[in-house]
Each structure stands twice: as structure tokens, then as C-alpha cells.
Design goal:
Shape: globular
Strand order of the largest sheet: 1-2-4-3-5-6-7-8
Distance between the termini: 17 Å
Largest sheet: 8 strands, mixed
Helix content: 40-55%
Number of helices: 12
Radius of gyration: 19 Å
Structural class: alpha/beta
């Protein structure tokens, strides 16, 4: 395969403000963040371990957002089923069961299967069987309130094994990182014909650093988080990064879509992934941010064409 990344993407990105460098990139600050930062200053003064435990709890606990009306419409035509997983089960949904090829959708942090509604409609019209699931600690899955990247990856692996033959995976943000970061093995190790990654964080330690910057965590707490990953999973956080793990993914064709003005994951991370992933089809977008990319008609049309 020929790597379709081009340095021209780097030059073009400079014409699409307001791009920022990784050192300047910041999360939008939520209300009440000052009190949280104060709590961590106090905890850190008492004990690095206490501060780490609370930081790790927050880092691994997604909010359960209220269900929106349009989500009900997205699930109205789906067949709901459950997939056993660890000490609970994953809520899963299937559209167009008679479709000739199966596309698995893997959502991002604090999203759920229903968030794929617009995408699902287009894929069903194109003749695909579509399956999506609520990740661990998300949606209606009964797997506890906390999750992390390795567990989410295991959940994706479990669903993939349950489905059998999978033609393509379309994944967003944290879901993209889990699919490619382990990486998940599809079709009994025979590989995946098509993989689509959207708004994917390319550098796992950078995700933790942005979290630490938001909460003003001390370097000692951040280092303790990194040590915890090594102790729990037998590998450094960096090894889950798409710049390292991604090229090991067994997929015939891989496409990465990332918006130049993504306010959650810097566009520079997508550029770095593209530089380090041979054969990657890198397609920057402009003006869609982190989440609108999932609903944009132009993006969906590109993905449907790519899957064919």
C-alpha cells in the first residue's frame, strides 16, 4: 500500500486557524473547576497517593449523560441484544440484519451506541448490517461505573468475537484509540478489510497530560498514574498510542479523519499518526470539531465510499 499522508496536509493546516500547538492546547474549563483544583492541591499536600487515587477515579469515570430524544429514534429500528462481558454485559444493537457485510461502530468517551444514529442510517441505506454497543461504564451496559482503555478494548474484542466475520469498523475518539491501541484482533486473526478512525487521540500520555493540566495535578501524581498503568497492564501508556500500536493493526485499508480545529484532541496528534502509519489514508476536515464529524454528510459519504 502507498501511504497517502502528504506534508501538504501540514502546510494546509497552517491556513486553517485557530490551530494551536500541543503546549498551548487546553480543554474548555468546566464550571466549578476551581474547587476541584483546590481539592487536589490539598490532597497532594497530604499525600501523593491520596491525590493519585482520586485523580484515577475521576480519569476512569465517564458521566452518564441524560438520554436525548433523537437517541430513541436512532434505536427504534434496531434489534437490542446483550453480550456477556466480565462481571456484567454490554448493551448492543443491530440494524439491517440481512445486510451482506457487517460494520461495527465503536463510540467515544461519554457517548453510546445511539450517538451513531445518522451514520447508521447511511450505512443501512448502503446495504450494510450495522452493529453498535455501549462501552463499559457507558449507556445501558451493566459493567460498573469505571472503565479504561484496555477494558474498553477487551469489550470491543468480545463484541467482535460474538459477531464473527466483520467487514469494517468505524470508530470515534476513545473508541478509535481502544480499537487500534491494543490492537483488537478481528476475523480470528485474518485481519479487517476496512478500518475508519475519527478524532482519535494519537498519543496516550498526552491525554493524561491534558487531564493533569486541566486539574493542575502535580508531576508526582501524573508519574504515579503512569506507574499504575505499567503495574496493572504490563506495558507503558505510550505503547497504546496510535503512533506506536497503530501500524501493528491488521487491516487492509485504514482511513483517519480529524478536524483541524478539534477542541478535544489536537490536530497535531493526527498529523503525527499519519507520519508514523504506513498506508494510512489521512483526510483532514475543517470546521467540524470533535463531535460534528460524526454527523457531517460529507464525512459520511466519504466513509461509505471507503467501505465499498
Amino acid at each position: 500500500m502507498v501511504n497517502t499522508y502528504s506534508p501538504a496536509y501540514d502546510r494546509a493546516a497552517t491556513l486553517m486557524p485557530p490551530l494551536v500547538s500541543p503546549s498551548e492546547f487546553r480543554y474548555a474549563e468546566p464550571p466549578g473547576i476551581g474547587w476541584v483544583r483546590l481539592k487536589f492541591r490539598v490532597l497532594s499536600a497530604i499525600s501523593t497517593e491520596l491525590a493519585f487515587r482520586e485523580a484515577w477515579r475521576m480519569f476512569c469515570t465517564p458521566r452518564r449523560l441524560p438520554r436525548k430524544k433523537w437517541e430513541e429514534a436512532a434505536l427504534a429500528t434496531a434489534r437490542a441484544f446483550r453480550v456477556p462481558f466480565e462481571r456484567g454485559s454490554l448493551a448492543a444493537y443491530e440494524w439491517n440484519p440481512k445486510g451482506q457485510r457487517t460494520v461495527l461502530m465503536v463510540h467515544g468517551w461519554e457517548h453510546r451506541a445511539a450517538f451513531w444514529g445518522v451514520f447508521v442510517d447511511a450505512l443501512v441505506r448502503a446495504g450494510y448490517r450495522v452493529v453498535a454497543f455501549d462501552g463499559p461504564a457507558h449507556g445501558d451496559s451493566s459493567t460498573g461505573r469505571r472503565t479504561n482503555l484496555p477494558q474498553y478494548g477487551r469489550a470491543t474484542q468480545t463484541v467482535a468475537n460474538h459477531l464473527g466475520e466483520v467487514w469494517a469498523v468505524v470508530s470515534h475518539s476513545f473508541g478509535a484509540a481502544t480499537t487500534a491501541g491494543l490492537p483488537v484482533v478481528f476475523n480470528q486473526g485474518q485481519g479487517l478489510p476496512r478500518l475508519v478512525l475519527m478524532s482519535a487521540p494519537g498519543n496516550t500520555p498526552a491525554v493524561a497530560q491534558r487531564f493533569a493540566d486541566l486539574l493542575h495535578l502535580s508531576p508526582k501524581v501524573l508519574a504515579r498514574m503512569a506507574r499504575h498503568v505499567r503495574e496493572q497492564h504490563g506495558r507503558d501508556a505510550e505503547s497504546f498510542s496510535l503512533t506506536q500500536a497503530g501500524p501493528r493493526v491488521q487491516a487492509e485499508r485504514v482511513m483517519l479523519l480529524h478536524d483541524c480545529n478539534d477542541d478535544s484532541v489536537p490536530f497535531t496528534e493526527a498529523q503525527e499518526v499519519a507520519r508514523n502509519w504506513p498506508g494510512l489514508d489521512f483526510r483532514p476536515t475543517n470546521g467540524l470539531g470533535h463531535n460534528k464529524i460524526m454527523r457531517d454528510k460529507g464525512v459520511i459519504r466519504q466513509v461509505v465510499e471507503f467501505l465499498g
